[in-house]
Amino acid sequence: MTRVVSATRRMVQEKVYLHFDNTGYFMGEKMWFTAYVVRADGHCPGVRSRVLYVELLNPSGDVVQRRKLKIDGRGHAHGDLSLDSLYGAGFYEVRAFTRYMSNWGGAACFSRVFPVFRTPPTPGAYEPVMDERSYRRRLPDFREADTLQRSRLNVSFYPEGGRLVSGLRSRVAFQVSDGSGRHVQAEGELLDGSGRVVCRGSSDSTGRGVFTVPSSCDGLRFRLRDTRGRIKEFPLPAPSSEGCVLELPPCFDDSLRFSVRGTASYRDRLLGYMLMNYGRVWTCDTFRVGSGYHKSYLRDSLPEGVNQLTVFDGSGRILCERLFFLFPKPSASDTIGIMSETSRLTPCGKVRLRLRSVPGSVFSFSAMDGGTVFNGRGPSVKSWLLLSSEVKGYIDNVGYYFESDDSVHRRASDLLMLVQGWRRYDWEELSGYRPRSPGEWRPVEDMLYITGHLRSVKKSLPVDSIPIKVYVYSGGSYTDGEMLTDSAGRYAFSLPDVWGEWNLQLKAGVKKLKSRYLLTVDRRFGPPARRLSPYECRALPVLPSDLPLLPDTMEFDTLPLLSLSERLHKLPEVDVKAKRRFTDGARAAWATEKRGQYWADVYYDCDEETERYLDEGKEIPLFCDWFMERSEFVDLSHTPFYTGAFGEMDSNPLEEAAVEAGDVEKSPTFGKEHVEWGRYKGRPIVWILDNEYAKGGGEMAIEVPISERTKETIALFPFFLDEAKSVYITENPNASVAYHYPPYAEDVVTVFVYTHFSPRRRMEKGVRRTYFQGYNVPSTFEMPDYSLMPPAEDFRRTLYWNPDVRMDENGEAIIEFYNNSSCREIRISAEGVTPDGRSIFNE
Asked: How, if at all, do strands 826-833 and 839-841 pair?
């Protein structure tokens, strides 16, 4: 017990919550947010980390944007994510974490999913439209695989305390779902080995239920019947021959009772139990099971929120364990009060609000155009810190568990804890029974660091005590340093606060052996992309606004507004004195990536992919090998990708007919054998290199005639991954029209590849030239000042965003902003965390 108490004080975990300016977005907008980083053992500021990572993941699970933000002394950070470079509408995930949080995996990180809708066809014509994708045009999936082999009807079992034990009665919770992971209401029967019904249990609207397994639990199976009449049987988990079971049923009075029973070998042994609340040890004691150990507490004497009850033996091994939730009593002081000092809304008119909250508190504030809000509010700072961050997976309608403390809600929270309970605090790790090696720990980033490993190509070469030189520079500023690697080849340099992207050069002082070493850089701390619940990939219901502001209908209907075109200042035409010659530099400008971006369904940043391989100490792969590994749909296995094979064979009959008809001219490739240049989802690939046709198109396609310039393009096709700059994939058949003769073409997929316009690039071993990302500079939210300009067409959906609203000594603040030209209803969202760890928010 002493080791656990010491460990919880020494290894205080961190949590982060992000408050956003809106509940859903359109492509092309900005996503504004404020981060609150707190200690997990009380939700107070005071974390040691000073670096926060915020990532935007596309529906496939790829990280498409990353922000690195500085956490201030209050645990706050704010920033923005730009949605103007996305390839398709859909449900995008935002996750946030510190490097220290990543020690406990993805469940310890903040995550929220937002709908991102298509850009309006005309400014202001907001409609919640998503991209509809058929199975054939589905996107690659890079998220974690579903551990459950799903069929039409599925059930997972969760014995209370963690496992079944032969000879001991136990409660078992269960979760029923369909093939897509949606909840299923079903009736169930527990059958013994002879088929006799032992007991019954049913799942509710969340798919959860519970039944009791008798002391004789061998050969049991659970038979389910859903509302459609489908029947399926499932075996229960195999029981242990020895051990203990824990029972903590939902109590509907003012007490909380639990009991422990054990097999004969445990009845006289000295055991212990410990109750923890958010990582703080609340109480603990020793006991002997005997014929059954029983303990009760008054509910008011126990801490609110999620608690962890662990029963263990003398070696620190867990015998049984579970979480339970005690309803947090609401307080009027947790509410951010909002009163309007503006009686009516007018187009582009000023809105003045008076806010009241805890004196000296700081929080973030957003005002939204209610007519353009197409998604509900989702989790709050209170529900995230007190509940969502302590369980595994998405909680559908998390606000329900904070509505009431009646018997119905207690039973629902009991099932939630049994089914989705996650151990943020690994008791066996804390007790020293199963310690983690020091090399596995990711440290606290209390400032900016450059860390990594020196890895030898041959295992026999030493990696310890090797001098590493670092040089970081940008413009006229630079810093450098040198150190020796430790016994494992690790190095670490600390940096002062720097902002933006800097050049980074690392060099190992190994002289003649330089070519046998690789230098890695640690900077990818995000967990694998988690599998999303179908319930977080849907729009939430939008509740009515409670801000007492009425629109002035007459002014909305009659006020003249300047159009966007009337507000633009047109530059005079440029007088061209001479025509510019076509140069290599102009070629780079002509071969812009806008063509690939226009058509793209999928985008890969090859420079970032190359850095990922080098960061992991791997050799840069061949382009074709990387492409097949990166996308499950790509098949280049039977492709003479770099052989340049153009053998003679019979001509394509369709091409021959087209030539005779005079539809196309006879090309240099006429009459030559068809060469397969890869397939995507079974369809031929048309390769476009720097906006010029390179190869491919399928057996029935007629390729654009190969000129000398195109032959040069084929010769410069990327051989290694680092020779490519970016890749865009589209399944739109119109994308390849300009590159091969479409009437006779097969259904193809077009792949645009862009290069660095340079010959084969070679990496110098023992030297790493890359980049270092300092803190990202947050953008500033801007809005028009209509006291200085006439009313105009204004389609802002977020009317006002302030990441740093400060209450005065009386607990008040004034907010002023201007309405847009059409908003008739304003929705407010304000959230924060007080210095003493209380969550404050507007209702």
From this structure: antiparallel
